[in-house]
Amino acid sequence: xVDLTLSSQCEYAAKLVQDSQPRRAIGVCRHILATFxxxxxxxxxxxxxxxxxxxxxxxxxxxxRVLSADPEDAFSYVCLAAIREGERLxxxxxxxxxxxxxxSPGNSVVRSExxxxxxxxxxxxxxxVKLTRGALARTYLRGQLYPKAIGELRELTILDPQRLDLRxxxxxxxxxxxxxxxxxxxxxxxxxxxxxxxxxxLILGRIWLDTEKDEEARALLQRAQSLDPAGAVAQRVLGARxxxxxxxxxxxxxxxxxxxxxxxxxxxxxxxxxxxxxxxxGEILLDEISPADYDGPRExxxxxxxxxxxVRRQYLKEHSNxxxxxxxxxxxxxxxxxxxxxxxxxxxxxxxxxxxxxEVMHDLNLWARLYPDMVKVKDLRVKAQERExxxxxx
Length: 394
Hints:
It is a single chain. The protein is mostly helical and 394 residues long. Among the domains are: 132-239, Tetratricopeptide repeat domain (Serine Threonine Protein Phosphatase 5, Tetratricopeptide repeat); 300-389, Serine Threonine Protein Phosphatase 5, Tetratricopeptide repeat, CATH 1.25.40. The chain has helices at 6-18, 22-35, 40-52, 56-69, 74-86, 90-103, 108-120, 133-142, 146-159, 164-176, 180-193, 198-208, 214-227, 232-238, 274-278, 308-318, 323-335, 339-352, 357-370, 375-389; strands at residues 302-303, 306-307. Strands 1-2 form a two-stranded antiparallel ribbon. The protein is globular and about 70 Å long. Residues 254-305 have low confidence and may be disordered.
């Protein structure tokens, strides 16, 4: 009899990839996603399958989705490093492997690969593989030395606010140290940029549960359960305080038999109201796959095997002054939830293209209404307004 538990089916799909049967693995993943459309691990396996098939653009999109829900997934960083090395982008390859090493410093394969890449980059022995401050902070976190972890992580996230993996670690450290107000604030900031960040949903949902924000808490926890139906991460992060019990979800034998979400204090009819107001901006693409008929990105969204985003990036390397193409890239990045890169493109437009300021301001004003507390958006609006005032008269 076929074992239809979610865990066994996901393991089966992963084994198919290992056995060089990626197309069969994709079929199993599609079946899983028909019932559990946000299950993070299934997207990881799906990314592996596309990587095995040599469909690197598809694999890249999927691993980025995984990192949008779990910015601390070392395996996704390793896979993205492999893809970037194939594209001969050495600096990006090293960056991704360094992130993986911080998350898994005991992994000898990652360490040896970093050494090899450092040799190619002619990095001196004294600067080679060593424990970074990020890795040290995680060591403190694992050792339950929460004040030390918080101190390191606060400094690091101030230096580089785009290190979302470190911000997730900071939120977790604050939670474990009992600094609930600070933890809640950090989670709220994370959810502005990554609405499907699993740990942020779990921690904020637990903090708000049984308070005046109980309804929002239950919605956050429901979202967390959709990302991790078995509740493994909830048990690992929240422990005995987790309101989500461990489960063994099962897949129906037929695709149209979808089990109800087992969350005792959330009715089946309840939905996360903010979802509709946020729209596509800031959402990862987990919601956008139609598992029943998914065969990769739509043909109209690809050119020569590349996504339109990759095509735009390549085009702008040779035509950096084409502001219309850069604006299109910024909007596409925004729409898939890659907010950090999108904001960098808007910043470039403000700096270098007066002719784009009107459209940039329109986009930033809309963004500010959606995310009134996002500091980077506020800063860019001020910068654009100042630039507009200094715009040469025609």
